[in-house]
Write a structure and sequence with these properties.
By secondary structure, the chain is α/β, with parallel strands linked by helices. Strand 6 and strand 7 (167-172) form a beta hairpin. The protein has helices at residues 22-36, 58-68, 84-96, 107-114, 135-143, 187-197, 213-223, 253-258, 263-273, 285-291, and strands spanning 10-12, 42-46, 78-79, 100-103, 149-152, 158-163, 167-172, 177-179, 202-206, 229-233, 236-237, 302-303. A three-stranded parallel sheet has the order 1-2-3. Helix 1 (22-36) packs across helix 9. It has two domains: 10-82 and 234-303, Rossmann fold, CATH 3.40.50.620; 97-187, Glutamyl-tRNA Synthetase, Domain 3 (Glutamyl-tRNA Synthetase, domain 3). Helices cover 33% and strands 15% of the residues. It binds glutamic acid.
Length: 308
């Protein structure tokens, strides 16, 4: 049985594909502040399903960086790679309801088909090519040997929700993949299964993920799982206005330490960038918790130029 969500239980869920940069660290700090300022649980999950992109040792480094900033979490760290049976059960549940179909399309085919207009769905959505294949068509595609992905019949649903920072957000849901053609459960399915299992009531994450939320809410509804609340926090940008990346300079905790700063200095600068500290001040986590007010957070991305 999934754990029922408690109002404010929060989480941070990095993908172990590279060192966390200041934007990631700031999102983690904010997620922690959201949960802990409400006296809630905070859990940590490593999103390591995509074995091709996971780099050895990175998850451990990410956790060490988060701990160095003073963040703590409840219970053992959850690894998605150890939860495959749970995703398989959710996929089997959807399949038993006839909600899934195999999709043999290649990326290039989808790109081509998706560029043609197809009703209410936004550009780039899956146009439904494999949704109504006849038995014969399916057999031909199966014979090609290309393993299919599994897609959810979403019926071009539109899902709206109210984000704690961004307000009302609405998105059309296409027939999203729930299991990739290499057999790996899709992010949009796994995240819903995991957040429910951990009793997460409030998902705090970067604003770049807001467009995935209508899909995840749709998946949750189809699985009969409760919907969490969401707060999508602003991204950190480099001086050129692009999303923060290595090329912007000293953007990781290790880089900042090499430049002579302490983890507390870095945490204070992150806090300053969201209005939780003033210049030259190094507030404790306790002080940050007392000051934290979600309604006072910026909603626009921040250019982190002054200290990188
Ligand atoms: N693992 C995802 C990422 O690092 C985030 C998942 C989430 O917060 O929902 O982009």
């Amino acid at each position: 049985m999934p754990t029922p969500p408690t109002e404010a239980t929060g989480r941070y869920a990095p993908s172990p594909t590279g060192t966390l940069h200041l934007g990631n660290l700031r999102t983690a700090l904010l997620a922690w502040l959201f949960a802990r300022s409400q006296g809630a649980r905070f859990v940590m999950r490593i999103d390591d399903l995509d074995r091709g992109r996971v780099r050895p040792g990175v998850a451990e480094q990410q956790l060490a960086d988060l701990a160095a900033l003073g963040l703590d979490w409840d219970g053992p760290v959850v690894h998605q790679s150890e939860r495959l049976a749970h995703y398989a059960a959710a996929i089997a549940q959807l399949d038993a309801e006839g909600a899934l179909y195999p999709c043999f399309c290649t990326r290039a085919e989808i790109r081509q088909a998706a560029s043609a207009p197809h009703g209410a769905l936004p550009e780039g959505s899956y146009p439904g090519t494999c949704r109504e294949l006849t038995r014969g068509e399916r057999a031909t595609r199966e014979a090609s040997g290309r393993p299919p992905a599994l897609r959810l019949r979403a019926g071009a649903a539109t899902v709206a929700f109210t984000d704690r920072l961004l307000g009302r957000y609405e998105g059309a849901v296409d027939d999203l993949v729930v299991r990739r053609n290499d057999g790996v459960p899709a992010y949009n399915l796994a995240v819903v299964v995991d957040d429910t299992a951990a009793g997460v009531g409030e998902v705090v994450r970067g604003a770049d993920l807001v467009e995935t939320t209508p899909r995840q809410l749709h998946v949750a509804a189809r699985l009969g799982l409760p919907a969490p609340r969401y707060a999508h926090v602003p991204l950190a940008l480099g001086a050129d206005g692009a999303r923060l990346a290595k090329r912007h300079g000293a953007v990781t905790l290790a880089d900042r330490i090499a430049a002579g700063e302490s983890p507390t200095d870095v945490r204070s600068a992150l806090a300053r960038s969201v209005g939780l500290a003033t210049a030259g001040e190094t507030p404790t986590l306790h002080e940050l918790l007392q000051r934290f007010d979600p309604s006072a957070l910026p909603t626009e991305p921040t250019v982190l130029t002054s200290w990188i």
